[in-house]
Amino acid sequence: MQSFDLDRTDVSKIKGALAGSDEQLKAILEEYHASEIAILFESLTSDDRQRIINLLSVEIASEVISEMHEESHPEELLLQMHPDKRTEIVEELDYDDATDIISQLEEHEQKEILEDLSEDDASSIRNLLSYDEETAGGLMNTEFIRINLNLTKKDAIDEIIRQSEEIEEFYTIFVINDDNVFQGIVSLKDIIKAKGNAKITELVKAEVAWVYPDTDQEEVARLISQYNITSIPVLDTDMRLLGRVTFDDVIDVLQEENTEDMLKISGVSEDEELSGNWVEAVKSRLPWLVLNLGTAFLASGVVRHFGPTIEKIAVLSAYMTIIAGMGGNAATQALAVTVRRISLYDLTDNQAYRTVLKEFTVGAINGAVTGLIVFLFALFFDSNPLLGLVIFLAMTGNLLIAGITGAGIPLILKRVGIDPAIASSIIITTFTDVFGFLLLLGLASKLLL
Amino acid sequence: MQSFDLDRTDVSKIKGALAGSDEQLKAILEEYHASEIAILFESLTSDDRQRIINLLSVEIASEVISEMHEESHPEELLLQMHPDKRTEIVEELDYDDATDIISQLEEHEQKEILEDLSEDDASSIRNLLSYDEETAGGLMNTEFIRINLNLTKKDAIDEIIRQSEEIEEFYTIFVINDDNVFQGIVSLKDIIKAKGNAKITELVKAEVAWVYPDTDQEEVARLISQYNITSIPVLDTDMRLLGRVTFDDVIDVLQEENTEDMLKISGVSEDEELSGNWVEAVKSRLPWLVLNLGTAFLASGVVRHFGPTIEKIAVLSAYMTIIAGMGGNAATQALAVTVRRISLYDLTDNQAYRTVLKEFTVGAINGAVTGLIVFLFALFFDSNPLLGLVIFLAMTGNLLIAGITGAGIPLILKRVGIDPAIASSIIITTFTDVFGFLLLLGLASKLLL
């Protein structure tokens, strides 16, 4: 479909070449882009990765390492490398990428890598390591193009060319004054188009979005996506320029946050690595299952309380599973829509209120329709219209509760400052289980005995 | 936190200004960025939006309209506008944005808008309307900077400046030959840095990713994210340049696809609008609930089959809810992790096999641990070690099945070319309900009666 697309053939090709000489392997590797080698690495052993990295130029090797997924542990590859090669590669990496990788190591390992670097590089990375990983500071790159407000067109172009020797990619040119205070941005296009005697001060665009280093990464992503900008400046409280966060980091953040939300509402800890092994998965999920067991005992306590009723009308236990299952699924539907809506939009109080009202209505209608189906079933199969009525009422009531809790609980959590995705299906289905059984068995005790 | 941040104050401010004169309102509006007005529109009535749009310059008005969320229906705003103003605004819009908005209208309404446009604009938009919305063709913009391979540095810069009069934002300069065949990309920075007599042919970077107009939008997003590029060229089968898709479109695609996945695995139709009304929500969810009802009858049939057993040991119905609830939640966990993993990575057959094996192991361990807790509970509360054993076995077996189906079903669906997120919790919990009851009640019949 496009020029680069990896498949199993590529993996076998590399694996085949690994059996041959270094020269042959090198020739094959030249056919691939660094980001492709990073993907192929996922299918290779640690020793093979090491051999390949050592064959690549420092430029390509550092690009491969920066493109490797966090889950493929580029930091381990770095750690096992010869210290000289490692230092070359780390110095070639952008500061933000180097920081991301080094931050995954133990403190003594970090120290080992940093002390081989130049004082300048080491202190820049040390500085970035001090920011929380999930903030603008943790995402930002401290290498960017900055020019003084008072430069003329010609001097500005010279300065940009000079600075761009060090910086591979830039999307935005930041403008500062003599005190290093941020003044705005300017595009290379506008500089080139300007008249010969133009000054940057005439070209600068001052009204731009910016963030502080402690701004949450979700907010950074929201701003970049809202204003369609390739990079956003990070400023300190004196409005001095500390760094920039670029759109490609934001794409990664969005994928990460979306993964977190999806796992959380499904009752999986947000830090479970998708490709982690079973030990990590057990550690991440067992606590939630134990919590679920606790809530299940609660629901089961309700059933136990109505034991005598069930002994008399055993068929109730067949309907119990229907009421609980339907309630759980209706609640999961309301939960998914609401959590997703909260994460994409800022809801006003009025919108939040209307959301709950909407889910209440949806629950009532869906409950009544499916309740009616079960009523008819009970009428024909169990020839018991009163039992049908009890089931109809329990179904409608339980889907009402599903709607209110599925929408209401994440909205309340958001309001009090807790991540709404924590309102996982495990929490929400407790309500529908308990209320569903209470309604069905309570009504049955009153009306059928 | 940053220069632009909207809150309730802004909404009240605009609403207050709407009560005053046009001049006052205009003055207040000038304080806001177009994308902020687009957000504020969400809290305003259709009449107020119309009044504001008419007060704004054509440039700002078209930006507001292009920034409005699909769910706020910019096409309705456009339709209700005075035709002259509308034509001005549509001509100011980028072709891809105009196409997105117009595509939401009925055919006769589309015609009404298009026939007022210049022949050139109308045919460009008509052409874009012909592509599927969820492909590169549907996302691409046909306005971009293209220069001939044979230009010299000076002519290239002149050409770029000339073309950029029409194109507000550009990130990449595309290079073509005399036959309009795509040759690669070049950066403005490299052109400026080149020697005076350099030709574009010496500067062009030929190895770049590209797509066809019918490439799926998810693939486009994956490539832009993999290669960290601001835009990707769209080529026809003769390698001629048709357009470009930019990173900001890709951010929107990712958010959309993530919403779809989250809704689907929760049993909500992917086309339910998050802020839709209750009618849409009922239409989207009721069919899934009815499907769930069908599967619930299946599970309930199992319970009914074991009616005599339950009549003798009524406490079994209390444990049934625990086994079914735990199985459902464990399956949802495995499902979320697997669906997310499939959507982020391409899994090889071997990786898919190991994923199922991992979930089997996780299910066995989590089942045994939680089964043991329930065993102890049964021992102390019901003083019945044999009942405890039955429950322990049913729990372990059901969580094993939860792991295998939660991971296996989406992987099989992916393999046969069906969207794995369709394997919603509704489908998966059918397995855990049916097998959970079969195990618990079947074992109880054999061992306890």
UniProtKB/TrEMBL annotation, chains A, B:
It comes from the Bacteria. One of its GO terms (cellular component) is plasma membrane. Keywords: CBS domain, Cell membrane, Magnesium, Membrane, Metal-binding, Transmembrane, Transmembrane helix, Transport. SMART domains: CBS, MgtE_N. It is a multi-pass membrane protein. Its main location: membrane. The chain crosses the membrane at residues 313-339, 360-381, 387-413, 425-444. Residues 140-202, 203-260 form the CBS domain. The keyword Transport applies. Pfam families: CBS (PF00571), MgtE (PF01769), MgtE_N (PF03448). It is found in: Cell membrane; Membrane. GO terms for molecular function: magnesium ion transmembrane transporter activity; metal ion binding. NCBIfam families: mgtE. PANTHER family: MAGNESIUM TRANSPORTER MGTE (PTHR43773:SF1). Belongs to the SLC41A transporter family. Homodimer. Acts as a magnesium transporter. This is Magnesium transporter MgtE. It comes from Pedobacter metabolipauper.
